[in-house]
Amino acid sequence: MKKMTRAECLAFMVAQPRTGKIATVRPDGRPHVAPIWFALDGEQLLFTTWHTTAKAANLRHNPQLSLCVDDQTPPFAFVKYDGVAAFSDDLDALRHWARIIAGRYMGAAQAEAFGNRNAVAGELLVRVSPTAIIGETDIAGW
After folding, report:
1. What InterPro entries does this protein map onto (predicted)?
2. In sequence order, which residues have a C-beta less than 8 Å from that of residue 117 and are 6 or more positions away?
């Protein structure tokens, strides 16, 4: 195993369009994990969610989250990103980031349509400031 630097962790997170797995805490204390598409703005993590999702409800109650992004092919690697979330319902910012996220996961041809579809009242832009970022690579290496 080899520990990644913070810069290596951030580069790994956006090198390929891997789905992130976000963990939040329900108001009753139980964990909740959900897949997300995301982008980075410097060290800040951005994703969108509908205002009535479990993610949104959990983050309103407790804005702390943890995200795992992993490479599931040998020799395996992962990054764990912990942070504190803040919501925005600014439609221009939402459209901007929804397009960037769509471009990462669906390609440039779909980015505009996806951005417009998701930049509506009720959709939230979640911006996460990191509290810890760690990663390891070559997990199965000898």
Report:
1. F420-binding_dom_put, F420H2_bilvrd_red/Heme_oxyg, Pyridox_Oxase_N, Split_barrel_FMN-bd
2. 98
Selection from 127, 44, 67 nearest residue 93 by Cα = 127
CA dihedral 42, 36, 51, 123 (to 10 degrees): 60
Q: Count up the domains in the chain and report the number.
A: 1
Q: Is residue 142 part of a domain?
A: no
**Per the domain annotation, does 127 fall within a domain?**
yes
pLDDT (tens place) for every residue of the chain, 142 residues total:
999 999 999 999 999 999 999 999 999 999 999 999 999 999 999 999 999 999 999 999 999 999 999 999 999 999 999 999 999 999 999 999 999 999 999 999 999 998 889 889 999 999 999 999 999 999 998 6
Question: Is the residue at 121 inside a domain?
Answer: yes
Is 129 a domain residue?
Answer: yes
Angle at which helices 108-118 and 91-106 cross, to 10°: 150
Look up the CATH number of the domain holding residue 119: 2.30.110.10
